[in-house]
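Practice problem: predict the structure.
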Amino acid sequence: MNFVSAKIRLLRLYSLVLAITGAFVLNCALGQTVSSDEAKTATANQNISGLDQLDDSSSKTSGKNKTGSGTFNNRVDEDVKKIVNDLNGARSSAKAKEFIEEIFSSEASKDVKYQAQKLSLRKLASLAEEEGRFEDAQQYLAVYVKRFPDDELIPVVLLNQGELYRKMGAYDLERQKCYDVIKAAQGVQLDRDKYNLNYVKRAVLTAQINIAESFFDEAKKMPTKLAEMGFSNSVEQFQTLTKSVEQFQTLTNSVELLDQGSEFDGLELGELNNVDLSLKLIRALHELSLSKRSKLSLSKRSNKESIDADKQDVEKSFKEVHDEGDRFIKNYDAAATEKKGEVLYYVLHAIRNSKFDPSEVDSSEHLKKVFRDLYKLNLENDVKTLPWILKGAGELGQYFFQKGKNEKVKKDEKKESFENAKRVFEMHVELIAGGKGESEKLLEMLYGLQYAETFIDEKIKQNSLYNDTFNDVRGIVDNVESGAKDIGLKLPLLSNLGVIGVDVDGDGMDAYDELLTGHSDTNPDNVPSRSEVDEKVKLKGVGNDAGGKDANEEKLSVTSDTAPDGFSDNENLKNNEKLKNMVTQSIKYLKSQANIRYRHILPVLYNLGLCYENLSNIDEALNIDEALTVFERIPAAVVKVNPLKGEFVDDAIFESPDTPLKFQVVKLLDNDLYPDAALVCHLGGEIKKGDIVRSKDDKNELEIEHFLSLDSLLTQKHVGDGSLSLRLIRDMAVWRVNNLSWLSEFEDGLNDGE
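Answer:
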């Protein structure tokens, strides 16, 4: 069939399609280069166990089953159909092949086996893909295309082949498969149920979307000089698709029609809507703009006119991102928070890059407005949105800071830029550390639980009653739980420790385990399994740093008042050890959270301190102590002491007479809960148990009993690629604390002298 005859055939078969959608399918089908069928090059003809091509000799009973009307044959078919259903639900290739062997060794009818062949090939392909055997999956699908070339599902099977090629990194082959989809859509025999016009429409649209995404994904892996063409192709495809979907929705006057026919016997065509297409277009425009800018920065051309033209092209490209992003926010207010967050980040980035020289970007108010809109999304407590807000905050803060450092900027503009940077960095810290922005809170909480853990160990050695043990640490537990909520963390293992060992309903499980797992502590038939309890104790899937309620949190509200007055010695030991285990597991979780949060907080705090420092240099009325206060938060530690003479004194500096150890008291902790403990700024040396330190005036002498330093919590050497090591950030902060402290004292001395 030549090109002209194909066009005539398409016009005859799809006159109804053309009446509804204009020439959309025609253009899609004939406007692209179509590849040859890949099944020709695949090993499609090799035999696959249990799936031999059926013919009259493949089963001695085939003819009988086809024409017979016996009860036996009907019963066999029904039994085999049940096995086919089991095959559809198989979770592994091995299990699927067992069902397949059972099906094709049965005396089921030829019709049943014929349909089972189709499902078997698709199922084996799907499982092979899940198991990472992409080549095997391709082979199964190639066999399907070879054996059933006229099947209505061929367009979807071809789509799946294309997606497999993308996972394999073969982008050209993926796009060829998508062009095959467009060709195959012509041959689908339409009916009024599944394989209707919407099915054809969705198949063609999905193929075109996959082509656009293929260009995008391929370009992401290309060198800078080659990536621009790929992103440009992706942009062009998405722009065309957005208009096509809009046209379809307008003509049908119903978005719902696009949701019809999205799934066929387990094969999905996916979502088709303008929100997602618009987002993908903005992504492609964003990457195209970055590619153009990077390419320009690598250019070695000296022709000024040519360079200026390229700069204008880059600025125009970022403006497209800005305009398309504004249109998205205006038109899709009901879009998911995550999607709006991503788009607002792109808009923020585009405004900042609208000019090559930051001093020429006259959009501070616009930038702040967009960032405020982005920041407000945090109120939705969407974990997927938070990374976009954090990314936007970090980059915007640096933008304002660098603008303030720019020598071309006037003094008033410098001050405004540093003020803007300061506010953004403050918001950034709040996002990471929690609603109150208390970055040191995790250290206090960890110290508290470690203190409780040590206390419980002593109680175990003393064979103490469980109720006495728990009552002695209850204040600490409550304090830690409260602190965790303040910074958006959940510690369900610390809830209801008072009912450890209490089996209210006599089912062999204590109330603590039942409430922890969401089971009833009053219904003996509602019992958690040991694996459920173990999973909760491991804290898998429990708690996150984005706020919100855990499903079990509201159930964990019983107090220790329900606990009996006494247990046996063995029960007390068992319950005390369980209490310790829950505290230990909570410590592990807090340590992981501390590591995650501090790795991101420390660089932001350092930049925030620099903002305060620069502002104090610009405006003499501003106190340098504000910068000092920020830098002191970076080398943080908690120290517990045994007072040998005097006591812990707020703001006092303590030094060791024998070692370089030096720290300054930042905040005394609650003396009722944590006697003789304080949050300190660790200025030098190594803190060790048993060390003796003295205040500068020698009025106070202390012995170190316990300490928890920030350094010990940071297991990652670097914040990210190309960033400063956390150790270096800490050391720079210590240098600034010492320097600014001296400067502050010097200025105070001058003021006193005057």
